[in-house]
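Justification of resources, computational component.

The compute hours requested in this renewal are based largely on the per-chain cost of generating structure records like the one below. Each record pairs the submitted sequence with a full structure-token output. That output is archived, and it is also reused by downstream analysis tasks.
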Amino acid sequence: MRYREDASLDTSGVRDRRGVPGGRGLAVGGGGLGLVGVVVLVLVQLLGGGDGGGAGAALGGLSGLDQGETADNTQLAQECRTGADANASRDCAVVADIESIQDYWTGVLGSAYAPTETVFPGSVQTACGGATSGSGPFYCPADRLVYIDLTFFEDLRTRFGAEGGAFVDAYVIAHEYAHHVQDLLGTNQQVRPGETGPLSGTVRLELQADCYAGAWARHAETVPDDSGAPLIAEITQDDVDRALDAAGRIGDDFIQRELGGGTVDQDAFSHGTSEQRQRWFLTGYETGDPARCDTFATDDLG
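The structure output for this chain reads:
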């Protein structure tokens, strides 16, 4: 994945809270989390939580910043000025991804799309509970913000065994912004909070978000930035293959079997199987049409 070298990056869509004191820590469980605890937490949060009572509510209650708290974007703004910076730095690539994804949805939805921001947590209190740098990526519908700890991308490689790469990072971010789109469109209202199972509304919501991420990816090389030129210069087949590899490692069945207790419990599914996540990402990517992502209109989820 490559970004247009001379593109101008806009960091205003990011609240960089890394290194900023404040927040009361993660409102889940107690003490340190071992691998299984992390997996359970990630299963709840990973690329998820868009139903108004999803990952956010599961955290017990995560506003973006407490009164008097601030985010300091000074260093980010200094380091992330151009597409060349995005090609050289993961932080800057994430800035570019966010800009491209929101430009895409603005083009698709017009005035119905309300841009939002991404918070790099550090430690922060959100409208859905407390989040720290140990939290998996999630969208909080209560404050309509995306929260992503960038070290999670390394966790995908080291804990989940994914190949990783810049486009995998972009897939994760696009999935979270898809939850924002679902929130804006009212799709969340079709889901009963806490519902699980292979045909549950929660699974349908997550698979649709994968599909929406794929639809953005299909158009990413042509979505214009403020200059009128695409911010993203190239997405290769290898990039797509890596995203599919990642999708295969964050399915409910894979996580339960390989990183949990070894037993697959379909009644506990909240995100869909590995095969389903790959299928719906590909549906969005191959068609480029968000209308083909209606996972609520079919019982054939794959």
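Residues 42 and 53 are 16 Å apart (CA to CA). The beta strands are 2-3, 14-16, 118-120, 123-126, 129-132, 138-140, 145-147, 232-234.
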